[in-house]
Specification:
Layout: E1 5-7, H1 12-25, E2 29-35, E3 38-44, H2 52-55, H3 68-71, H4 76-93, E4 103-108, E5 113-118, H5 141-145, E6 164-165, H6 167-175, E7 181-184, H7 188-191, E8 200-201, H8 204-208, H9 212-226, E9 237-240, H10 246-256, E10 267-270, H11 273-280
Parallel strand pairs: 1-2, 6-10, 7-8, 7-9, 9-10
Antiparallel strand pairs: 2-3, 3-4, 4-5
Length: about 290
Amino acid sequence: MYDIVADCSDNVPTRYLVNDACVLSDKPLVSASALRMEGQLTVYNYHGGPCYRCLYPVPPPPETVTNCSDGGVLGVVPGIMGCLQALEVIKIASGQGTSFGQQLLMFDAQDARFRSIKLRPKQANCAVCGENPSVTTLGDYERFCGSAATDKCRRLNLLSRDQRISVQDYQIILAKKEPHLLLDVRPLVEVDICHLPSSLNIPLSRLEERKSQDIQSFRETIARLRQQMPGSRRPPVYVICKLGNDSQKAVQVLEEMSGSELDGITVKDICGGLMAWARLIDPKFPQY
């Protein structure tokens, strides 16, 4: 028997599964999560408050979801969020209630700051806790979300074979000293841990936002490399990240960009990212 559920999962299918199980059994769900240097905490299905589906009725596209295995997390942050999660469980179990039945607590470790935002109320049309629920039993949540219920690193396949190269191929390019741009799309905190020489860092999030400062830096680097190319040739762009997932997304973003900075330029992803480089090319390269 149980009275309270604490969700510490790191994947979307499990979150929907645990939420629905709690709603169907009328149990409060204390949910905490952490990614990189940020954490979140809330309590679902408590005293008429919203459930997880009230806030997220439709799962996000699998390629847009980042978990701790993909994006990393500062180890202290899960500890902080776990302690807060345990505190809310104890408060509910002892009859003191919780402050987060319709509030989301957000923790920013970078600035050591907490803030709380009010969540939308329980939704009458919610598929599981609404007035006429369509979800009355647990189902296939991997199929519903289009992704696996695992916390292990995902391996996306967003590009065709000719849009990607192996780390061995990139090693040959380096050995031949062929002019090119290596674009590292990891967050700066990861780049500070380790990076390949002469790479240009533009985090995927900023690339997706088309930040003018980053686009200008990209253009200037391309222009400088063009001076090293014979004739009208343009330098190719190779994109790298930790595992080869975000780099594929970045290739898609770059191919959608318009303007002379990409006219005639080949953009390719480096399969497996820096961890493949460390495993197959340079065993001394830091792994994290």
